[in-house]
Design a protein that fits this description.
about 270 residues; mainly alpha; 3 domains; about 5% strand
Length: about 270
């Protein structure tokens, strides 16, 4: 009622006379509605509104409304997590109360995502490592192949940091997906190297390397369209996928051959020394 009285005072100001004639009818109707406005009793408020303040239990004498600071953006995950930690569970003399809102749910979802994402990444790496080990039946070869892919993943993280790209509920699934798609290139390159033998790196890169490049480009083309979506989550998936496929391809065609060349040179030096 206090707010209504303030509005009525504003409507009595002389500046209201400047309102165009075509709007005065609506203005007079609004004034009449304000004059007829009466205080609302608690029992007249719909239950779906009262539950926002007293909860479904409807405990008499309890009213609670928690608002974040006026300029605190709840779309920022850090703010949502901090808000959820502060108000999701409240201890009072008569017991524990649990508050809920869009921001609290968003904060809890983010905490769950960050907690589970570590498990997902570890499980993904171990799964890929296991299958590569079953293929090569050699720990040394498996580690060489895995190194090129893990280097590409870490490179992705660095590019994301420099570009200001953050992990979210959408694009986080692309990290294990990129690993699964890119590991094939390293496996094929190494198998081709074993098939042709030492001194064949140039031929490996000019044959299998080109095939790996085309395979990565076709995979990236499938995600390229997502980069132009209006939905931010889908767009971030496309960006992360394209960057990840590119970095993993570069590490496969650059780091893996360099490592293989290093071991070749060392064996040749040892053979000459012997």
């Amino acid at each position: 009622m206090k707010v209504i009285r303030e509005i009525q005072k504003l409507l009595e100001d002389d500046t209201i006379k400047l309102v165009p004639e075509k709007d005065k009818v609506d203005l007079d109707r609004f004034k009449a509605a304000l004059a007829e406005t009466e205080p609302v009793e608690p029992d007249q408020i719909p239950p779906e509104l009262t539950e926002l303040f007293v909860g479904q239990a409807q405990i008499p004498g309890t009213v609670m409304l928690i608002l974040a600071k006026p300029k605190l953006e709840m779309d920022d995950g850090r703010n949502a997590i901090a808000f959820a930690d502060e108000v999701s569970r409240l201890q009072t003399p008569i017991g524990e109360f649990r508050a809920s809102s869009d921001a609290v749910v968003f904060g809890e979802v983010l905490k769950t995502m960050f907690r589970d994402s570590r498990k997902v990444l570890v499980i993904s790496v171990l799964s890929v490592f296991t299958f590569v080990l079953l293929d090569f039946r050699s720990l040394r070869k498996t580690l060489l192949v895995m190194f090129s892919i893990l280097a590409g993943v870490f490179w992705v993280m660095g590019v994301m940091y420099l570009a200001g790209i953050h992990l979210n509920l959408y694009n986080m699934v692309m990290i294990p997906a990129v690993m699964g798609m890119s590991i094939d290139n390293s496996i094929h390159v190494y198998h081709r190297y074993e098939e042709l033998g030492r001194g064949s790196l140039n031929r490996v890169l000019s044959t299998t390397g080109i095939s790996a490049t085309l395979a990565s480009l076709t995979n990236a083309a499938g995600f390229f369209g997502l980069m132009f979506c209006s939905h931010g989550g889908l767009r971030s998936m496309g960006v992360l996928a394209v960057i990840g496929l590119a970095t993993c391809l570069i590490t496969t065609l650059l780091f893996l051959p360099l490592i293989l060349q290093f071991f070749e040179s060392r064996r040749a030096a040892e053979a000459l020394a012997a």
